[in-house]
Amino acid sequence: MTTVFLSFLGISASISLIVLALILLTPFLNKRYAAKWTYLIWIFLALRLLVPVSGANGPLVMDILSQIRPQTVHRAEEKDTDILDGGVISSRRIIVEIPTQMTTPITTPSEKNNLEITILDILAIVWMIGSLFMIAVHLVSYLYYKRQVMNKGRTIKDVHILHQMSKLKRELHIKYAIQIVEYSKAKSPMILGFLRPVLVLPKEQYSSEELYFILKHELVHLRRKDVYAKLLFVVANALHWFNPCIWMMQKEAVIDMELSCDERVTKGSSYAVRKAYTETLLSMLHKRCTNRTILSTQFYGGTEIMKKRFKNILIKNGKKNGISVLLGAMILTVSLGTLVGCSITKEEAEALPETENISDASEKEETQEEQMFEDDSNDDNTRTLTFSKEGVEEQKEATIVVGDGYSLYLFDDEWEATDVNTWTAKDNEKVQLWITHFEGKTMDVIEQELADDGYITEEAHHHWKQEEDQIYHVKVKDFEDDRWGVFYCYPVEAEEGWGRELSLITDTFVFFSKEGENTKESLKEEDSQEIRN
Fold it and tell me: 329 and 41 in contact (C-beta within 8 Å)?
């Protein structure tokens, strides 16, 4: 237990530096980037807090910490420890010396033998008890509140509410059933539950506009699995309850979760719609809504948080893509984590198991990477495609479709052919995909025709346009002397949903010559490479 405690203590210290830096940079980041990027950073940090041992050096640190004692390393010895037998270089780590007083055994006499315990052992026990107590308190509170809601709440059967709910579920591509419960003691609309989520509404009178925004806000939370993110923050905070920076991190993460949810609800909306949304939030403020359990989403989050949400919703200027900020934070987090540990003496290095050769490890890593794209042995015509929606990674099974001179993958049970080279989504007839063969046309001619049709060039060979509430895209595929166009369209509000899926589908498009011997089976290797790119 002492070894685990020291590991958590080390990673808690390194993560604290990043948390403080992020809190200081929050005003700057919120002005330039969407809140979902900082929200994803908080999620990554919480995951890192649950896995305190760094990758390759993890077993090494655990072995060394198990011998807890102060290390005195002379400079001459440090040079020798840089290189282990076999030429493998060990990584440098920050030296953490434990005071002798903490490692000196406290002998307690007993009838049969002496029990040796150190101050460090006592601290580890206190840490474990505190963590278990925090987790138990939140779990019991959550289970009690959910039981109260299910026993004393009333299932809503109002046709207007159910119709609005059904419409929003289709819009957000939520296919499973969601129970709506009215609970008189609920102080705020919320999503409650993990495996069987329940949408809880206070016993209030809502206008149609208020009801729309409340339901959409909570369904966006549900779509993104935010209750699981809250559980992640609670567990991370419980394991690091001794660190005030982690308490601050949990608070900031919940704020950014609400800000990013607001951004998703109002994405692509006019200023008037965003203003109407803030008025709904303001009505919740007047009703003094509060949240009852931490393991749930919340529509209202307090006066100060509401001010931040108003400002973020009504801001007019567009925000930049924050993927670079997310990657930078991830690299910094991992780098700092690998610096926390103990020094390695020559004697300890020799006592450790033989280290795997670097070249062998590299070959093993390449083999694993190839296996990621290995075909399913049960069905060569299917693939598992991975994509991200609103920061949440999803995987779906797709089956190859072979057309007249081309092939691509479509997600199973989601599309139906409405023409020879046209497919329509089963759940939304406004979502379509079609293939056009630009036979005998040069790229210049194709781009000019697209421009005449109102398309704007987004990047090389990728064009788009908007007509009323529909967005149209086309990706031109240039195969030496042959060119194809993969067209697709979807409603504006489905940008984060169908927009991501259709973009991935177009990347699986592969052209093959009619005169060749290509069949569904021979396309397998070609398709795998296309998906990988």
Answer: yes
Q: What is the dihedral of CA 38, 40, 42, 48, to 10 degrees?
A: -140
Please give the Cα distance from 479 to 487 (Å, whole number): 17
The three-state secondary structure class of 474 is: strand
Q: Give the sign of the dihedral formed by CA 222, CA 223, CA 224, CA 228.
A: positive
Report, in this order, helix, strand and coil percent for the chain, each rounded to 5: 50, 20, 30
Q: Which class in CATH covers the domain with range 375-532?
A: alpha beta
Q: 177 with 224: CB under 8 angstroms?
A: no
pLDDT digits (tens, 9 = 90+) for 26-48: 888 878 888 888 899 999 999 99
Percent above pLDDT 70 for the chain: 71
Coil, helix or strand at residue 532:
helix
- Name the CA radius of gyration of the chain, rounded: 28
If we measure between CA atoms, which residue out of 432, 516, 508 comes closest to residue 471? 432
* Angle formed at CA 53 by CA 50 and CA 59, multiple of 5 degrees: 140
How far is Cα 149 from Cα 4, in angstroms, rounded to an integer?
A: 38
Tokens 């495996």 belong to 195
Among left, alpha and beta (phi > 0; psi -120 to 50; other), residue 173 is left
Looking at residue 89, the DSSP 8-state letter turns out to be B
Task: Please report, for residues 51, 107, 366, 386, 396, the alpha-carbon distance to residue 372 in angstroms, rounded to integers and kept in the order given.
Answer: 23, 54, 10, 11, 15
Averaged over 422-428, what is the pLDDT?
91
Taking alpha carbons only, the member of 232, 216, 165, 507 closest to residue 392 is 232
Tokens of 430: 């406004």
| Residue 435: predicted pLDDT | 93
The residue extents of the domains of the chain are: 2-126+322-364, 150-241+251-314, 375-532
H helix runs in 340-411, sequence order: 346-351, 358-372
Q: What is the pLDDT of residues 332-357, one digit of tens each?
A: 888 776 665 433 333 333 333 443 34
Q: What is the pLDDT of residues 305-341, one digit of tens each?
A: 777 777 777 776 667 777 888 888 888 888 776 665 4
pLDDT number for residue 87: 43
**pLDDT the model gives residue 181:** 92
